[in-house]
Amino acid sequence: MLYIVLVLVLAALGLLVTALITATSLWAWISIGLSVLAGLLLVLDWLRRRRRAAAAEAEPAEAAESAEDSEDSEAAEPATETAETTEEKDVEQTTLLPKAGELGDPGDTPEPDVSEDASDTEKTSTITAAPAVRDGDPPEEQTSADDLVIVSELEDEVVVVDEHPRYHLTDCGWLAGRDTIPIAVGEARQLGFTPCGRCTPDTSLAAAHR
Fold first, then answer.
1. What is the mean pLDDT of residues 192-200?
2. Which residues have C-beta within 8 Å of that of residue 201, sequence separation ≥ 6?
3. What is the pTM of this model?
4. Which of 92, 115, 140 is the last residue before a domain boundary?
5. By the 8 A CB rule, do 194 and 130 touch?
6. What domain range is 17 assigned to?
7. How many CB atoms lie within 10 A of CB 120?
8. DSSP 196
9. How many domains does the chain fold into?
């Protein structure tokens, strides 16, 4: 491109000298046209060089962005795996939590019985704390201090009903037609459940273990 411009400039100069010598304006106009053409070629060459420089600068930037995206995706994958692993551990370690204000000694929390039926285990794992008393619930059994000491350490099975605060003996008449969830009596007390006043589970179980 620069060689063409140089040739055009030399030709324009030669024509200008010829116009001066021959006093012919045509050669002068041709010289001016060649000069303008040379100027346009210079401008085009400058624009082309500028685009190349911009493209060359953009390539390293794009490469750097691609590298950053790759690093971010690689970093995100372990983070996702860690989150999923933590969630799985949380699910595996889900235990029955007592009602606020009635937390017992963690060492007294009974270990889950792996020999229980799978359906019973699933039902028990949904219990977190005893709900509030509402209309239709049986009255609470007034357990004596002596019976309470005995019952709190027992692993005998009682049953509870979802969204109701009492625990019952399996033959309690109030349970008719209701879905029950088996649970250890000591664990039921830790969760905040209270004994049913109709079937009096605390009195019955304490008497059976005296």
1. 92
2. 141, 151, 158, 167, 168, 169, 172, 185, 195
3. 0.41
4. 92
5. yes
6. 2-92
7. 15
8. B
9. 2
